[in-house]
């Protein structure tokens, strides 16, 4: 394919990325699904020449790792800026309104990892380390492809007539069942990327010849505690520092909120991620925490919408690239190693494992509506079902296979690719009617936490 053809394809694809969200707003098809299908079709034509990514090649695998890494951290910054409900680590009263989030992270995600790993090891004959890696890679709800079930932009769940002087720690949001589902899935996606990484590390420790017991000690002591804490602290420090600079700097030239310069959001996400990784913390958690800390600096300021818009546009562009390349690869060899076992894993995860684990996590002594974080039975079922698999899974697998030789790597890539495609199809078709049904309930003001 000529360079001119690539330019034409890029232009058409970018145009689709711009117009699809509006065109498909009321149709039971997500933009992600259309873009993925476009990529599949392109891969079947001469237009796909030169666009095929072969993950067996080191340079292509590194490309996947870096592109997906950037896509995830951009999405996480947007998520952090978009969340209206407060979370103050020094005010335990704010933690209760995040009850669905903690349940999904501390119960649903480990259970999903365990069930997928058990399925891979006991039923499909994978090596224990490979089975654990498969479970860890496929466990997180994706902050990128879950855009159809994410919260809106900053201020979207705060009433227009709400007073501006309400303290950050007081929950001033109003919501429908749809909003509560979106909040739970958004916050889960914002935090679980960082929390899934320790399980990926554990699988590599076992793969390198370490015992599961000694690996578990390192897993808990270093990855599950130290790196999580460091990541969150770095994100909060960077976010608060930049927040103070943006809104309250003595020098007028440094008060970026008054200048309306939204590109500071990109500087913030890159700074938080880089600082956390250098400090041996989880960068994904740092970016999400940074976004929330910046938002907390001036909770109701319009500048957050400007920053969110810039981040969202960059996220949309990066998502376009990832989906097109994934679609091309799906029809050009990525699924070559897919077998009945891989199809079984994908179906089990999307249809059984995630919905079951999510339902159990949310159904035991749940918070009731209209309490903040309260979900009725329909809301719990929808939240459990919409565990979208996506770009984060590609990043984890690219990182892990780049760190060491992983047995069954080709099969893992085929299975993960098929699982993501299945999730995009199933969740992409279901999201519009399900969320519309939940949204039809009357809006309710959130009760005090």
Automatic annotation (TrEMBL):
User: What coarse category fits the chief subcellular location reported for this protein?
Assistant: membrane
Q: Which UniProt keywords apply?
A: Antiport, Cell membrane, Ion transport, Membrane, Transmembrane, Transmembrane helix, Transport
Q: Which InterPro entries match?
A: Cation/H_exchanger_TM (IPR006153), Na+/solute_symporter_sf (IPR038770)
Identify the residues that the record assigns to the Cation/H+ exchanger transmembrane domain, covering every copy.
15-436
Q: Which Pfam families match?
A: Na_H_Exchanger (PF00999)
Membrane topology type: Multi-pass membrane protein
Q: Does Endoplasmic reticulum show up as a keyword for this record?
A: no
Chain ranges passing through the membrane: 6-24, 31-51, 63-83, 104-124, 195-213, 220-243, 263-296, 317-338, 344-365, 377-398, 410-430
Key word Cell membrane present = yes
Compartment annotation: Cell membrane
By what name is this protein known? Sodium:proton antiporter
Taxonomy, top ranks, is:
Bacteria, Bacillati, Actinomycetota, Actinomycetes, Propionibacteriales
